[in-house]
Write a structure and sequence with these properties.
There is one protein chain. The chain has 75 residues and is mainly α. It has a domain of 52 residues. 92% of the residues lie in helices and 0% in strands. The protein is built from two helices and no strands. The longest helix has 46 residues. The protein is elongated, with a radius of gyration of 19 Å. The relative contact order is 0.13.
């Protein structure tokens, strides 16, 4: 009986941890995408053109940041 209770508590703890991790990951990805879009649109307004190479570099950087935050949360 105690083992069953322990498993249930552990299961709930793991489930709560996963939900918190998922929320933190979602927030970090959202933050990175928002920041990326601000940079892209501000640059477009200033220059009047779109620099695809700069956008590609920015996207890559933002995804690396989001990936690092994801791994940090999961570990």
């Amino acid at each position: 009986m105690n083992e069953r209770i322990c498993r249930t508590r552990l299961g709930r703890t793991l489930c709560r941890h996963r939900k918190k991790a998922a929320e933190a990951i979602c927030q970090e990805v959202t933050r990175e995408v928002d920041q990326l879009l601000r940079v892209i649109f501000n640059a477009g307004r200033k220059t009047g053109r779109v620099d695809l190479e700069a956008i590609e570099t920015s996207v890559r950087s933002a995804m690396h940041q989001a990936g690092a935050a994801t791994l940090t949360e999961l570990l």
